[in-house]
């Protein structure tokens, strides 16, 4: 793999800084840097690519497209009748390379993309890197063409129609992999938190949650190395949110939760939630409360209910204005109360307040 991109600066670039960088780039000549993986550091901020990793083959492919564009510019001779024919033919070759990638690459790597986290992440980056370089292809090629006294109409240095398909392909590939991950995890979690009073069932539930945690850690380890921070956060957040929603659904669907089961359930869920917070740490700060806001806070409220008294649940509901009411529906709160507490007048009174 090849590490590309350089934009880790979030500060906004003003117009004067943009023009200064652009002028310096023209004077220095971007062409001599374009084949290097750190070429983006010479571009204005708005053109820089976020730091990530792509496959070495795609890095070579994009450089080959650039060389083809330069060859198209050098082949253009306005003094010869139909002098643009050869140039146009070479330029169409560059466009055909991109078309073949969009049509063939996802089919050729279909199995690996859907099953291997690293391949899915790299393919996602590949698509966006190609798109990024195609955006600046005209500018890059124009610099070298001008230097070599070659010309080609700017309208021909245009790959706009590929931007949409490449982005759609990248999004589709990553979403397909995320869907497979969600499906696998749902299958693993199908029978947890059942009969925890039995030591064997308790151990099985703990082992299942540990298995899910380890699977997510493996995915996170790979994706941290490959994806940008923002894409990593969104992708991991998607899976973690699904896991938390699944666990929440399992707990609220229980018709009877003994005090012993409730204590063990709260302990297991709290430990799992803490582990998920660690997985969502980026640059020392956890983003789980932002990326997985609804599922994260709903799980915290469910843990509070499972671990609390009927009075504390009533107080936290606070006539539909408390944090419990904000994140957990009235129907789910009533289900939890019925499962956790015996049928008494006090329970009936609290249930009548939750609507």
TrEMBL record:
Q: Name one GO cellular component term.
A: cytoplasm
Pfam families recorded for this chain? ZW10_C (PF20666), ZW10_C2 (PF22766)
BP terms from Gene Ontology: endoplasmic reticulum to Golgi vesicle-mediated transport; mitotic spindle assembly checkpoint signaling
- Any idea where the Centromere/kinetochore protein zw10 C-terminal domain is? 48-186
Q: Which residues form the ZW10 C-terminal helical domain?
A: 210-352
- Highest rank taxon of the organism: Eukaryota
Can you name this protein? Uncharacterized protein
Q: What is the lineage of its organism?
A: Eukaryota, Metazoa, Ecdysozoa, Nematoda, Chromadorea
């Amino acid at each position: 793999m090849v590490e590309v991109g350089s934009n880790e600066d979030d500060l906004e670039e003003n117009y004067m800084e943009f023009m200064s960088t652009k002028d310096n780039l023209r004077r220095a000549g971007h062409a001599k840097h374009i084949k290097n993986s750190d070429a983006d550091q010479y571009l204005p901020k708005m053109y820089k690519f976020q730091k990530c990793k792509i496959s070495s083959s795609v890095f070579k492919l994009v450089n080959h497209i650039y060389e083809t564009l330069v060859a198209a510019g050098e082949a253009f001779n306005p003094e010869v009748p139909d002098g643009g024919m050869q140039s146009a033919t070479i330029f169409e070759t560059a466009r055909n390379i991109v078309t073949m990638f969009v049509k063939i690459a996802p089919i050729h790597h279909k199995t690996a993309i859907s099953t291997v986290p690293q391949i899915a992440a790299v393919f996602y980056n590949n698509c966006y890197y190609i798109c990024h370089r195609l955006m600046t292809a005209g500018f890059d090629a124009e610099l070298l063409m001008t230097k070599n006294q070659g010309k080609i109409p700017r309208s021909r240095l245009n790959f706009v129609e590929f931007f949409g398909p490449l982005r759609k392909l990248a999004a589709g590939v990553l979403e397909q992999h995320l869907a497979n991950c969600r499906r696998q995890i749902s299958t693993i979690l199908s029978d947890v938190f059942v009969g925890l009073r039995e030591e064997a069932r308790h151990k099985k539930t703990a082992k299942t949650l540990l298995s899910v945690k380890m699977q997510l850690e493996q995915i996170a380890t790979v994706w941290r190395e490959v994806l940008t921070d923002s894409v990593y956060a969104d992708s991991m957040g998607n899976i973690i949110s699904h896991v938390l929603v699944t666990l929440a659904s399992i707990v609220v669907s229980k018709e009877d939760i003994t005090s012993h089961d409730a204590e063990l359930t709260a302990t297991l869920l709290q430990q799992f939630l803490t582990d998920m917070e660690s997985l969502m740490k980026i640059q020392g700060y956890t983003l789980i409360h932002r990326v997985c806001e609804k599922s994260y806070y709903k799980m915290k409220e469910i843990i509070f209910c499972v671990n609390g008294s009927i009075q504390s649940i009533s107080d936290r509901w606070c006539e539909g204005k408390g944090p419990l009411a904000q994140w957990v529906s009235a129907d789910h709160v009533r289900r939890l109360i019925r499962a956790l507490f015996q049928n008494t007048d006090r329970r009936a009174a609290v249930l009548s307040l939750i609507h």
